[in-house]
Each structure stands twice: as C-alpha cells, then as structure tokens.
Amino acid sequence: TLLLLPLLQAAAAASAPAEEATPKLWGGRFTGKVDPLMEKFNASLPLDRRMWAEDIRGSQAYAKALAKAGILTAEESETIVAGLDKVASEWAAGAFVVKPGDEDIHTANERRLTELVGSVGGKLHTGRSRNDQVATDTRLWLFAALTEVRGSLQELIAVATNRAEAEADVLMPGFTHLQQAQTVRWGHWLMSHAAAWQRDDMRLRDLLPRVATLPLGSGALAGNPFLVDRQFIARELGMVGGVCPNSMDAVSDRDFVAESLFFSALHLVHLSRWAEDLIIYSSGLFGFVQCSDAYATGSSLMPQKKNPDALELIR
C-alpha cells in the first residue's frame, strides 16, 4: 500500500478537473484543500445517486416544515420546492451535470438548487445534517423498493393459487429423497411453494412500518432548536411507521437494512426451491412440465436440448 500510494496520488492529481469544486457542506472550519485521492475515496455519489428522487422529496417536505416553523417565509419555501422540482426534472431527463465536489447526492442536489434559486437555497440546510438526510433517503428508497417487491410477490401468490384451483384434478407423484412416494395433486405441490411465499409476504407486511419511520429532524445526533414539526414531515413523506422516537438511535439505526437483507435472502431460498423442482420436472427423465420457449435457451452443439435457463438463474 505504501508503494502504491504515491502512484495513486499522482494519477488522481493528473486526472483532477480544473473546474472549481463545489463548497463542502461541512467545510466551515477548514482552510486547506482536500487531497484529490481523498475526494475520490470519500465520494458516495456513484452509489447514492440512485436516491435522487428520495433526497428531493425529503428536502421539499423539510422546506415546508421550515416554513411551518417560521424559519422560512412562505415565498422562500415555495421557491425552494419549485427549484427542487427543476433539479428532479434534470435527473429524470438524464441532464443533471455532476461537478467536482459533489461527493454525495445531498451535496449535489443542494449545490444545483442554489445555482437555480440563489442564496435562499442555502437556507434549506438549516437544522439539518447529512446524518438524518442519508437515513431518511435510505428508508424512503428501500420502502418504495420493498413495496414494489411486495406487489410482485402477491401477484406470484395469486397466480399459483389460481393455477392450483384450475388444475385441481391434475395428479402427479410426490417425492421424498427423489424417490416416488405418494400420489399428490399438482395443485398441492404449487400451494406448498405459495405457502412459503405467503410467509415472505407476512414478513414484508411486518417490516414495512419499521422501514418507513422518519429520522429527518434528528440532526447529527440531538435534533435542532427550531421546533420543526416532524409528524408533519412524516405525513408528507408517507412514513407509515411515524417518527423515530430517539434522535441518537434514528441516525445510527440500520436494523431495517439488515431485516430487508434477511427477507431477501430467505425469499430467494424459497424461489430457488421452486425453480429447482421445475428444472427437475421439466427434464427429459421426468417430463411433467415443459418450459416455454420464451424463457429457455438452446445448445450450439446439441440442438435437441431446451435449457430452462430462467429457472437456473433464479435457482
């Protein structure tokens, strides 16, 4: 590492843009410049830019709350909200221009807002920290993603249930140890997987309110003195879990991320079991089902083959 560091520093310096960097949100006490290597190492924008919409929604709700608290005038709040709409339009159109110093999505959006509406844009950060911002953005993004997943999961359960009912008279051998054991209904096999998916749906139902709990207004760790109405912000953002009850916990809690990862891992295990069964049942040795051409591939050497690659990838 010690040998590589000078080379990395030289490469970073050589590639550093000549354009003036965006002032840091945290730069108040600093007089020296940040090393270009540190700039790259510290930047999260390549990853958190996916949360641009959530960051803007949170900022718009916060601007309204600042006006409600008398920190902003109604006109200033409306100017900021309208300016953020323009920033959102640029992101949506793929026209947002990232500049040096845009180290994260919060800095990038606030920098562009100030360019569009002037110095009033700087008032948006009153009483706010990137600690409560990133926690809020992550929760909003994850809540939307999990809600979409839950909709697809419920659709999958409904399809399996409808197929099981429509094909109730179809019989097949049931297996233990991959040996024929008892005669079962095809629908019974389908519903064995739907039962696991239903448990996944129940986990999501329980998890979503814990994801959609509002940290915004917690500041860096101990809130702010501006009497911002956090319940109002929660309602504006559709945070069905209400407000985080403790500011220090609010900015440090990532339990909801771990819980989401557990749900995802277990749900994929359930999908893997279902896919493996269908791979076996569609093979020439079993021939119980046939994979649609739309979800299969072939072999360049053995043209008689139909490979259930969609199922293989899910497995």
What is the topology, as strand order, of the major beta sheet? 1-2
Q: What is the distance, rounded to the nearest whole angstrom, between the alpha carbons of the first and last residues? A: 39 Å
- How many strands appear in the DSSP assignment? 2
Oligomeric state as shown:
single chain
- Rg calc: 26 Å
Largest pleated sheet: 2 strands, antiparallel
Strand content bin: under 5%
Q: What integer is the average pLDDT?
A: 92
Task: Please mark out the parts with pLDDT under 50 across 5 or more consecutive residues, or reply none.
Answer: 10-18
- Provide the succession of SSEs: HHHHHHHEEHHHHH
The number of helical segments is 12
Counting helices, strands and paired strands, the structural category is mainly alpha
Shape: elongated
Percent of residues in helical segments?
A: 55-70%
Would you mind describing this structure in some detail?
With 315 residues, this protein is mostly helical. Helices cover 57% and strands 4% of the residues. It contains 12 helices and 2 strands, in the order αααααααββααααα. The chain has a two-stranded antiparallel sheet with strand order 1-2. Helix 4 crosses helix 7 (130-166). It is elongated. The chain starts with a helix and ends with a helix. Mean pLDDT is 92; it is low at 10-18.
Overview in brief:
The protein has 315 residues and is mainly α.
Key traits:
mainly alpha, elongated, 315 residues, 57% helix, two-stranded antiparallel sheet
Which SSEs are present, and which pair or pack?
Layout: H1 4-15, H2 36-42, H3 45-48, H4 52-68, H5 74-92, H6 105-117, H7 130-166, E1 171-176, E2 179-185, H8 186-211, H9 230-236, H10 247-252, H11 255-281, H12 309-314
Antiparallel strand pairs: 1-2
